[in-house]
């Protein structure tokens, strides 16, 4: 990912754009065909060789213009045919088209990262498909679920992220070789079409000398959404690793230390790190949105922003996705602790089933709720020392509607996992 944003890669893309444009100009008669062929041959022979970044920087120190500096240096490596480079083109034709190539290259790597993460999530989800655990709302015990469902939810979320990124990649992959203010006054749309085809891009339907920045805004917004999904899963793991919960934790490698002061510490450092990295990626979103509003046909207020957020956001997200994949791959999962936490509050997690059974037995919902809640609060205040099932069995108002043996059936943990196969089929397909 870092190589994509290197000066060497950028200049190679710039030269490719110039060469493909010259090639098409030769075909259309805009420049002599033999000179166009020489330019194309120079590209094939790699006449630029090792890109001399220092030499280009030295020229730019005088010209104060990066594209002119590059063209000056590149031209010095060629013969008289170099005068036909950049015919009818403007700097944005090179800069914006090259940025589209780089963003497309970056997106391809990120899509590979997402595939790797999805594979690990799927494997671990099936591993714990029916591992019971407590679901929480507001951080409080709610009803039982499975740890596999937690991971399946993450899989579905990142699968959506992949689809969004693929769409954003396609949307950003446009080529603009339309000249000053985008009118094609000094260059033919045929040139643009040829360059686009050679680079695997789509011609921008209408540019204003620059490619419209709503495309870039959507691209970086998509990266921001992926970062938030990373943080969502990282935060879940951090909560599950808390000492009072300890249902899962990051893998602890031999010799790893958690604290300089406390030898006992096992901290969720990787997922905390991911939470911070997500903030960095999202930090690119607002500047990208603000880049949309340029003055008239163009200005360069967007340029300085993109020179930072392009590499920063994609490199950071690339690293974060790889790190999260490693965390999930080696995640330590503790089913026994999950069961212990399920049993922690004396059966309160089954209260809704009793409520529903009472209403189905003829009691009003209001009376049913009040009756179950009264017993539930006693269990809560006893810190789980009391049993909800036993309290309900001892309440004649309840047993008048539901026999004790039927009450016991309402505390069956398997009831909450009955639809796991259905949900997995929705997420992973019917074969799941």
Walk me through the structure.
The structure is a single chain. The chain is mainly α. 62% of the residues lie in helices and 5% in strands. The protein is built from 18 helices and 6 strands. The protein has helices at 7-28, 33-44, 53-63, 66-76, 91-127, 147-172, 189-199, 214-240, 269-282, 285-290, 301-330, 335-342, 351-360, 365-381, 388-393, 396-399, 404-409, 420-428, and strands at residues 132-137, 140-146, 174-175, 202-203, 248-249, 332-333. The strands form 3 sheets. Strands 1-2 form a two-stranded antiparallel ribbon. A two-stranded parallel ribbon has the order 3-4. A hairpin with a 2-residue loop joins strand 1 and strand 2. Helix 6 packs antiparallel against helix 8. It is elongated, with a radius of gyration of 31 Å. The protein starts with 6 loop residues before the first helix and ends with a helix. The model has no long low-confidence stretch (mean pLDDT 96).
């Amino acid at each position: 990912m870092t190589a994509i944003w290197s000066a060497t890669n950028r200049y190679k893309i710039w030269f490719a754009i110039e060469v493909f444009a010259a090639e098409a100009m030769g075909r259309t008669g805009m420049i002599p065909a033999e000179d166009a062929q020489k330019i194309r041959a120079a590209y094939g022979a790699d006449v630029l060789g090792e890109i001399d970044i220092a030499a280009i920087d030295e020229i730019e120190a005088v010209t104060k213009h990066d594209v002119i500096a590059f063209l000056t240096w590149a031209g010095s490596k060629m013969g008289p045919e170099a005068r036909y480079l950049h015919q009818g083109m403007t700097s944005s034709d090179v800069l914006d088209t090259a940025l589209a190539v780089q963003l497309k290259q970056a997106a391809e790597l990120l899509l590979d990262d997402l595939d790797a993460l999805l594979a690990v999530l799927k494997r671990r989800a099936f591993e714990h498909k029916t591992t019971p655990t407590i679901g929480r709302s507001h951080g409080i015990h709610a009803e039982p679920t499975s740890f596999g469902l937690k991971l399946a939810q993450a899989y579905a979320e990142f699968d959506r992220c992949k689809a969004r990124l693929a769409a954003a990649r396609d949307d950003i992959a446009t080529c603009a070789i339309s000249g000053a203010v985008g009118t094609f006054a000094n260059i033919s749309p045929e040139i643009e079409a040829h360059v686009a085809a050679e680079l695997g891009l789509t011609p921008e339907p209408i540019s204003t000398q620059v490619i419209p920045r709503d495309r870039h805004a959507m691209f970086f917004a998509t990266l921001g959404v992926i970062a938030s999904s990373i943080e969502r899963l990282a935060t879940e793991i951090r909560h599950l690793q808390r000492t009072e919960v300890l249902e899962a934790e990051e893998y602890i490698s031999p010799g790893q230390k958690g604290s300089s002061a406390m030898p006992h510490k096992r901290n969720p450092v990787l997922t905390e790190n991911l939470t911070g990295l997500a903030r960095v990626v999202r930090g690119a979103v607002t500047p990208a949105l603000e880049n949309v509003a340029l003055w008239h046909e163009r200005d360069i207020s967007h340029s300085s922003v993109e020179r930072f957020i392009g590499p920063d956001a994609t490199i950071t997200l690339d690293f974060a996705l790889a790190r999260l994949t490693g965390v999930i791959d080696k995640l330590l999962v503790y089913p026994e602790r999950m069961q212990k936490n399920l049993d922690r509050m004396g059966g309160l997690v089954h209260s809704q089933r009793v409520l529903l059974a009472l209403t189905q037995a003829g009691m009003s919902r209001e009376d049913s709720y009040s009756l179950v809640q009264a017993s539930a609060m006693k269990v809560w205040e006893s810190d789980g020392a009391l049993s909800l099932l036993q309290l309900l069995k001892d309440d004649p108002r309840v047993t008048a509607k539901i026999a004790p043996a039927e009450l016991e059936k309402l505390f069956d943990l398997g009831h909450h996992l009955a639809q796991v196969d259905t949900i997995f089929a929705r997420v992973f397909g019917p074969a799941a």
